[in-house]
């Protein structure tokens, strides 16, 4: 009798523990649903290439003077990336009819030791104009004022071709179907008088020379009206004026035309 009661009590306890055993356990997946993978972090936008403010050279058609526009004419491609079969959208001339309109800027050179200023090496990346007045040449120690800008490179305008018989000036669009004179076949003739191609002579394009400058014959300082003379032309300076670099008198300055590189 006691044994039966004991077994009954043990069974009751076991059932009670079994009914509470689910508490605190991790529930399994709901039947019929497949647990998906845990969502990962949302990726941000892929950073594009960092572009600095660059100045792309311009390209102009020598026939119709159309200036190439990368977005409108080349689907965003730079002129250099265009295929050789590309043509001017205005007059239909080949890519070779386009010429660069770039005008490289001059550099700054020390008039004492001829050192050419390098922004990265000599000025911590600063343009020469932004250097402090106390800056000195890293080679010879000359002051900033001893540096002069070298003449900028100037693109020579296109030469023209004139018939030596009738003086007709060749027009690429009207006379050569858009081809430059150099690309015309040897059998081409003057559309006015019928003279052969060999009768045409090249006429060098005129290039305007810059204003004359005044250079100190002692230290080679080039007079700057704004910096050295309060805006006055050299001719209007008083006789007592002196070179701001070496102190030489006005008479030490010589008139010299700027060099022009073609």
Question: Would you write up a description of this structure?
Answer:
The structure is a single chain. With 262 residues, this protein is low in regular secondary structure. The protein folds into four domains: 59-100, Rubrerythrin, domain 2 (Single Sheet); 105-153, Rubrerythrin, domain 2; 160-203, Rubrerythrin, domain 2 (Single Sheet); 208-262, Rubrerythrin, domain 2 (Single Sheet), CATH 2.20.28. It is built from five helices and eight strands, in the order H-E-H-E-E-H-E-E-H-E-E-H-E. The protein has helices spanning 2-20, 70-73, 119-122, 172-175, 225-228, and strands at 59-61, 98-100, 108-110, 147-149, 160-163, 200-203, 212-216, 253-257. The chain has a two-stranded antiparallel sheet with strand order 1-2. The longest helix is centred in the first third of the chain and has 19 residues, at 2-20. Mean pLDDT is 76; it is low at 20-27, 29-33, 44-56, 152-156, 206-210 and 257-262.
The CATH class of the largest domain is Mainly Beta
What's the number of extended β-strand segments? 8
- The CATH topology label of the largest domain is Rubrerythrin, domain 2
What is the CATH architecture annotation of the largest domain? Single Sheet
Spatial order of the strands forming the largest sheet: 1-2
Give a short account of the largest sheet.
Answer: 2 strands, antiparallel
Helix content: 10-25%
C-alpha end-to-end distance:
127 Å
| Spans of at least 5 consecutive residues with low confidence | 20-27, 29-33, 44-56, 152-156, 206-210, 257-262
Question: What class, by secondary structure content?
Answer: little secondary structure
Radius of gyration using CA atoms only: 41 Å
């Amino acid at each position: 009798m006691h044994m039966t009661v004991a077994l009954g009590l043990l069974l009751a306890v076991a059932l009670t523990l079994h009914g509470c055993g689910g508490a605190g356990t991790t529930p399994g997946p709901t039947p019929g649903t497949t647990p998906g993978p845990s969502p990962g972090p949302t990726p941000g936008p892929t950073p594009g290439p960092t572009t600095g403010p660059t100045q792309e050279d311009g390209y102009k058609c020598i026939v119709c003077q159309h200036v190439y526009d990368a977005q409108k004419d080349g689907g965003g491609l730079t002129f250099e990336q265009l295929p050789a079969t590309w043509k001017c959208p205005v007059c239909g001339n080949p890519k070779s009819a386009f010429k660069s309109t770039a005008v490289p800027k001059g550099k700054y050179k020390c008039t004492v030791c001829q050192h050419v200023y390098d922004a990265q090496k000599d000025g911590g990346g600063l343009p020469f104009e932004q250097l402090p007045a106390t800056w000195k040449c890293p080679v010879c120690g000359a002051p900033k004022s001893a540096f002069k800008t070298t003449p900028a490179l100037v693109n020579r305008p296109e030469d023209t071709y004139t018939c030596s018989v009738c003086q007709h000036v060749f027009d690429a669009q009207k006379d050569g179907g858009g081809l430059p004179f150099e690309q015309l076949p040897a059998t081409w003739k003057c559309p006015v008088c019928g003279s052969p191609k060999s009768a045409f002579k090249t006429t060098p394009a005129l290039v305007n020379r810059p204003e004359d400058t005044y250079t100190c014959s002692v230290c080679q300082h080039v007079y700057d009206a704004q910096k050295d003379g309060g805006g006055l032309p050299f001719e209007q300076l008083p006789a007592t004026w002196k070179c701001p670099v070496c102190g030489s008198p006005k008479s030490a300055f010589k008139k010299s035309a700027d060099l022009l590189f073609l």
